[in-house]
User: Fold this.
Amino acid sequence: MSTQDWVNPNDAAASASTRSAGERLKFLIGGLMILGAVGYLVISGTVTGARFFITVDEVVGNAEYQGQSVRVTGAVIGDSINYDSENLIIEFTVVNLPERYDDLALALHTAVNDPENTRMHVRIENEVMPDLLQHEAQAIMTGALGPDGIFHATELNLKCPTRFIEDGPAVPAEHPEI
Amino acid sequence: MLAEIGLISVVLALTACLYAVGAAVLGVRTHSDRLVVSAHNAALLTFPLLLVASVALLAALLGQQYNIAYVWQTSDPNTPLFYRITALWGSQQGSLLFWCLLMSGFAVGALLLNWRTNRRLMPYVIAYTMATLAFFVALVVFLENPFDRYWWVDDGTQTGAIVAAALQPADSFAVPARDLAADARGLNPLLRHFGMIIHPPMLYLGFVGMLIPFAFAMAALASGDLSTNWIKATRRWNLVAWLFLSLGLILGGRWAYDVLGWGGYWGWDPVENAAFLPWLLGTAFLHSVMIQEKRGMLKVWNMFLIILTFSAVIFGTFATRSGLVESVHSFAQSEIGFPMFAFWAGITVISIALILWRWNRGELRDEHQFTGIVSRETMFVLNNVIFVSLAILIFWGSFGAPILSELFLTVDITLGTEYFLNVTPPLFIVLYILMGVAPLTAWGTMSVGRLGRSIFIPAVLTLLTVVGLYALGTRMFGALLGYGIVVFAGYVALYEIYRGAMARRRAQGESLPQALVAIFGRNRRRYGGFIVHLGITVIGIGVIGSTLFQMETQQTLTAGESLDIGGYQMVFNGLDNGQISEDGRVMDIANVAVVRDGQTLTTLRPRHDFYPGAQGMNTMTIAAAHSTIENDFYVLLTGWDTIAGTATFKVYVNPLINLVWWGGLILIVGTFISVWPTESTARSRQQAPIVTGARATA
Assistant:
């Protein structure tokens, strides 16, 4: 006779069921804790890391953005670029780039050639001159507009339209007559 | 002629794809084995056709056929041969064609190798792989054609105009290639780097390789063969894709480190993150399929994971190629955005609907339940939860928050690097802890006491390491904690290999090296996996060291002057200005000597390149580095004054950074060991009986 005969089958089933329910509860609590931790990371990370992504018009035109850490996009004026290589300070001017456009190269070209366009002076320290910083590049800067009217950037990303817009060749000097 | 050959080949490839899809579906529905075989043959045909198209484009690049728009945009007469070859994937159209070729290669490989062993799944695999390939080939044919040529048309102006078109417009003339050579664009200077040359193909291989496990999973759902057949058939494909994805990410990091000149290798850029998402999800899948194989559990979860992984691949491709996100990596804003989004949404919805359908029918029920908190299954599930959480957090930061704010708020919101640096480290820490603990747990259930005894030796070794680091001068608590957690995972991997070898030695009376060779030969997956864990450990050590202890300085020096940083001295020995290279670059080079303890270790030549012919971005700052396992001495020439004879340098000392690359190499070796087929696998493939596929589905 096996020892199992001494145990009431109903009791054994109930015990297994209780154990199973206990395990399930442990998994549930563990899962909820992980979910809570991940949720906390998302919310806290979003609250501390969120930056308004705005245009030069918006940051210059709204006093509420002054001193606030924001991300701004603008078109670089090539002649304004000044690089102090000894102190690693870059200064340049950007002009407003519309929020929506079909052709980045065209939008940048139009923006820098519009004398009425809003301008903003940018200063970034301890940064090596990026190779992409040039006339009609799109600059995406993170930083804050100071009371001096200068945008003090802490991060600078650049996009050069000619890398992305595949334009075509000019008509060769010698071409067939139609 | 080359353009015509290429164009005809891609059109035929598209036709073959569409025929294969139709014949495979019809073959299954009508139980016609002939149709399925015909679909199989059509699918096989796509590879040679796409190969011909790719070779045609390559020949055009090598033959300087500047009348082909793609050749004009990515090369010029000064482009060296090597970069002429790599220009094949240097821009949108060529890279899409190359992507199609690789995808076709993977699909054909999977069809050939699994045709005998998995005949029941094959019609569906053909349908899924060829439908996906058809979509990308259609993009090449209709929207991003690399075989567009330049035509001179009369537009009413005095000079006429040059237009690009695949077919000759009415009343136009072909423009001779030699007439267009002078102002050809040339390859983007940023892409002229070894890392960038092989980084995209590796990443593409990783991306397209994920198509195979996805197609098999979908085939299992569609055919109703929901056993582990699809998992067994795709385990190696999955590992191969994961290997290439890992290689692509590592090489991308190396490229950023060498070329972008900021002393780092990962910038949490949306496009970098888009490539990281499938890696995270694919890694979770690699672990969780083991539970299904061993215990018949997590069937629905595994289906979801592989769908999410492939969905992440397509989403990442869409995000990169559509101009959706602001990134230094993006291609042009192009017309492929909407079709790619529609395709991504379509495959995701269809796949999830298939899972729900099978689940609703009760066909994806698990065979076992979780029995204990301390078990291998629970550890793997936790591992999966963390990997997926990381993917969600990174997706949210890169795409979720910016896109939702654009849709629903009056002002756009982005999450910068700070977000990623805040949210990801806690999860990486948990992952490393799990990587240490999980291999020591048993399937089913295990007592905490037994786990404690298993952990004891690696834990003691970890403690000794941390104490040693403290004694050697590391005082930062975060660094000691980080090193401790990471090396613990490595010690567990080494300990498990050692235990396996010792058990074998005792049982067989072999020497330790013989026993090591034997255990790796007999269980490549397990021990290859431990080598991968070791690689990840080494990468982790490199990341902690280079992130927490990086030193930097910038100084202007005249010839003969020096600067000091991190125990090194750098002596400036003068400038070589205006050096002209073979490809027409003008280089300004600084000569510096790196000295330590009075001994000159090496001389470096950081430089600044100017590309006179390049449009737009035409300068490149090229760093120089003296690399050792201990650290990298990394120098950038940031400015110079030829009259004053001065040069300004930015110098970084990056501790342990080379462990990131060495860890990557170890990871690759480990994956190779895991992927390498055993004799029994090869034999079973050869001996598998041929069954009537379409009939078997009935």
Remarks:
- Helices of chain A lie at 9-49, 56-61, 104-112.
- Residues 9-49 of chain A form the longest helix (41 residues).
- The beta strands of chain A are 50-55, 70-84, 89-96, 119-125, 138-145, 150-159.
- The two ends of chain A are 107 Å apart (CA to CA).
